[in-house]
Amino acid sequence: MVADVNQADLARYVCHRRAVLDFLHKQLSRKADGKYPLEDRVHNIISPMGTTSDDVFPEEHNLWLLDEKLVYHKFLASDKQLRTLPLLSNGGKKKPDIIVFDKACAFAAAIEPPFQAIVIVEFKRAMRDDCTDDKNPFLQVLEYITDIREGKARTPDGRDVPVQVDVPFYCYIVCDPSKKLEEQAYYCELTKTPDGMGFFGYKRQYNAYI
């Protein structure tokens, strides 16, 4: 009986993920007018825009599309200004597409900031090949990091403390590869992935993995 229930749950789980992947693929496809959907289509599939993890249930996110570990977060904000986030003070007016604060260790000292790492996600429109220098997504995420580091972290008891110098940032830029993006990735000294479909690297001065 238990085995049957477990098999049914697994089948439902796999079918749900397959349906999400099929729907995502459809949102990346060219429309009848020859144009591709805006990036908010993908954004909303992964995390509803204009919300935080206080507003929606975990099952309303599809963060596993980026990284399974992101499901287990302390706080998430989707398309919200940095200065409005309860874990930051004076974070600026910029709005990362998605920002995720990793869970802090249960035994962390009371004066420690309420997160151990920060994840930033930036989306670009499917098949976009017009990312000019002033819209360079790699520089965008680095600017978010600068704004966050120049602000303050806020502890659960409402105290403002400096953002830890060594807090790591993990940045995901979700886009189709293009010649311009490849140039920008090389300028940021990133390395092409073995499958040739992406780039990765570490920016030492920002303590950021992209």
Quick take:
The chain is of the alpha+beta class and 210 residues long. It has one domain (35-209).
Topology readout:
Layout: H1 2-27, H2 40-46, E1 51-52, E2 73-78, E3 88-89, E4 98-102, E5 118-123, H3 137-150, E6 152-154, E7 160-162, E8 169-174, H4 179-187, E9 191-192, E10 199-200, E11 202-203, E12 208-209
Describe this structure in words.
There is one protein chain. The protein has 210 residues and is α+β, with helices and mostly antiparallel strands. It has one domain. Helix content is 27%, strand content 20%. It is built from 4 helices and 12 strands; from the N terminus they run ααβββββαβββαββββ. β11 and β12 form a beta hairpin.
- Percent range of helical residues: 25-40%
- What string gives the helices and strands in order? HHEEEEEHEEEHEEEE
Number of structural units classed as domains: 1
Tell me how many strands there are: 12
Structural class: alpha+beta
Highlighted features:
single chain, 210 residues, alpha+beta, seven-stranded mixed β-sheet, three-stranded antiparallel β-sheet, 4 helices, 12 strands
